């Protein structure tokens, strides 16, 4: 257990650039998803729609959209109500 806690996968810190924000509501409150981008995160493989459909039918692990998700966190809105937010960092010009 001690070794598992000290062994971490190799990682690189990036400073994402702002993109856009998605806001949604539920009975539990508002949620904001901030979409950022960085040239440090590579784009997904360039495949045709037919190739993508074939990959998804055969093996869903065959196609991956590179991304990095930040930890969800709570903040207060202008009316002092809690919000939940998460960040998705992806390459500029990506999906």
3D structure, described in words:
- There is one protein chain.
- Strands 1, 2, 3, 4 and 5 form a 5-stranded mixed β-sheet that branches.
- About 5% of the residues are buried.
- A hairpin with a 2-residue loop joins β1 (about 15-25) and β2 (about 30-35).
- This protein has one domain (about 15-90).
- The chain has about 100 residues and is α+β, with helices and mostly antiparallel strands.
- Helices cover about 15% and strands about 35% of the residues.
- The chain has helices at about 1-5, 50-60, and strands at about 15-25, 30-35, 70, 75, 80-90.
What's the number of extended β-strand segments?
Answer: 5
Q: List low-confidence stretches.
A: 86-95
Overall mean confidence score, pLDDT: 73
- Main beta-sheet annotation: 5 strands, mixed
Query: Radius of gyration in whole Å, from Cα?
Result: 18 Å
Strand-residue proportion: 35-45%
Distance between the termini: 39 Å
Keywords:
95 residues, 5-stranded mixed beta sheet, 5 strands, extended, disordered C terminus, PIH1_N, PIH1/Kintoun_subfamily
Task: Give a quick summary of the entry.
The protein is of the alpha+beta class. The protein has 2 helices and 5 strands, in the order H-E-E-H-E-E-E.
């Amino acid at each position: 257990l001690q070794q598992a806690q000290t062994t971490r996968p190799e990682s690189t810190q990036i400073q994402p650039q702002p993109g856009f924000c998605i806001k949604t509501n539920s009975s539990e409150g508002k949620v904001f998803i901030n979409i950022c981008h960085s040239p440090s995160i590579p784009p997904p493989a360039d495949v045709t729609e037919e190739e993508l459909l074939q990959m998804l039918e055969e093996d869903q692990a065959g196609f991956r959209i590179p991304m990095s998700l930040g930890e969800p966190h709570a903040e207060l809105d202008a009316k002092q109500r809690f919000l939940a937010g998460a960040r998705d960092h992806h390459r500029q010009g990506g999906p």
